[in-house]
Amino acid sequence: MFLTNRDAIELQAFRHELHRHPEVSGEERETARRVAEALRPLAPSKILTGLGGHGVASIFDSGVPGPTLLFRAELDALPIEEKSDAAHRSTVPGKGHLCGHDGHSTILLALARGLSRQPVARGRVVLLWQPAEEDGSGAAAVLADVNFSEMKPDFAYSLHNMPGLAFGQVALKAGPVNCASRGMKITLSGKTAHASQPETGLSPMAAISSLMPALTALSHGAPPATDFTLATVTHATLGEKAFGIAPGDAEIWVTLRTLIDDRMAELCEKAEHLVVTAAQEAGLDYAISYHDIFFHCENAPEAVADLEKALTTEGVSFDEGNLPMRASEDFGRLRAVCPSAMFFLGAGENHPALHNPDYDYPDDLTAIGARVFMAVIRDRLG
Q1: Is the dihedral of CA 300, 301, 306, 310 positive or negative?
Q2: What is the pLDDT of residues 262-320, one digit of tens each?
Q3: Which residue among 236, 284, 308, 367 sits deepest, i.e. has the most Cβ atoms within 10 Å of its Cβ?
Q4: Residues 188/204, Cβ–Cβ less than 8 Å
Q5: Residue 2 scores a pLDDT above 90
Q6: Distance (Å, whole) CA 83 – CA 80
Q7: For residue range 39-93, what is the model confidence (pLDDT) as tens digits?
Q8: Of residues 174, 178, 169, the one with CA closest to residue 345
């Protein structure tokens, strides 16, 4: 094992420091600073900052020709109030590391410590701390960054901790593992009126009332069926918070999901048709926009084989688990660049779920994740 007891103590302290100071997507300035500060004593060949916003990358270059392996973690937290008695609980009201990105970041720092002591024999290792994973914008921004050309990988790997899965058990398979998704924002515009004379206005009430169940009815099947679709209404507003005004405007937010990217256009078309029909029948104006766009994650067989070999070497039990899952992951964009794969590391069957207010990343996962990644490196690069 390349980590010492002292490493374990210091890495836990690092993770707790990140946990106390969560920053949401696009705001990870101090989190990135803490990561870069922790990397400098390890003397990587290069540290890149400001990638796609606040992203950080460290490059460990052997100087000998060989493949480039990229390992990705995430920097951002969630806009959710943490409910915890832990000494390291969030100090920022309304924000918390309730998905474990602080833990994933610590796994990469553990890997950096190992690489600083045991350099690879050939090729390069790139450790990427990606910003803005939670809103789906971070990976695209990193790939579009001019500095990405300095670290373009031949293979990319990642992991995510997974409550509900036995502690230390891994779920891994080739093919689709996370769904494509996007947020659809629908605005309906009519005309307000005095509440005593609603007939003089144009209310979107009937349209929004019919649209919500109609959109939800677009849901069909479940993964791993390739025709799986899911439409979830996440937010809706109607009119002003006043008793004297008949409403003139309404807004609906709905999240659309498909197993693979190729099915998303069809689902969007069906949802848009419902909106247009409802608006026209009610005489309303409408607008549609899309947000938080995630491509589906698809594990490449060759990258999965690397992870399977590493898991076997490290004695970590794995199977296909409940993959593919409905949740989305920004890592899916990396498959456009190189073969990539993500595995899911069990946080405990009864552990609070991701995005729950009482969730906290289990620190004992750090050594497991780092060992598996290091085994991939040693097998590929020596």
Answers
A1: positive
A2: 999 999 999 999 999 999 999 999 999 999 999 999 999 999 999 999 999 999 999 99
A3: 284
A4: yes
A5: no
A6: 9
A7: 999 999 999 999 999 999 999 999 999 999 999 999 999 999 999 999 999 999 9
A8: 169
> Which class is domain 5-177+297-381?
alpha beta
Domain boundaries, the chain: 5-177+297-381, 180-294
SS3 for the chain, per residue? Answer: CCCCHHHHHHHHHHHHHHHHCCCECCCCHHHHHHHHHHHHHHCCCEEEEEECCCEEEEEEECCCCCCEEEEEEECCEECCCCCCCCCCCCCCCCCECCCCHHHHHHHHHHHHHHHHHCCCCCCEEEEEEECCCCCCCHHHHHHHCHHHHHCCCCEEEEEEEEECCCCCCEECCCEEEECEEEEEEEEEECECEECCCHHHCECCHHHHHHHHHHHHCCCECCCCCCCCEEEEEEEEEECCCCCCEECCEEEEEEEEEECCHHHHHHHHHHHHHHHHHHHHHHCCEEEEEEEEEECCEEECHHHHHHHHHHHHHCCCCEECCCCCECCCCHHHHHHHCCCEEEEEEEEECCCCCCCCCCCCCCCCHHHHHHHHHHHHHHHHHC
Q: Structure tokens of 112?
A: 């950096």
The answer to whether the CB of 99 falls within 8 A of the CB of 353 is: no
Give the span between the Cα atoms of 260 and 163, in whole angstroms: 24
Can you name the CATH fold of 180-294? Alpha-Beta Plaits (3.30.70)
Binding-site residues, in ranges, read 99, 101, 134, 160, 355
Residue ranges of the annotated binding site for Mn(2+) are: 99, 101, 134, 160, 355
pLDDT higher than threshold 90 for residue 231: yes
pTM for the predicted model, two decimal places? 0.94
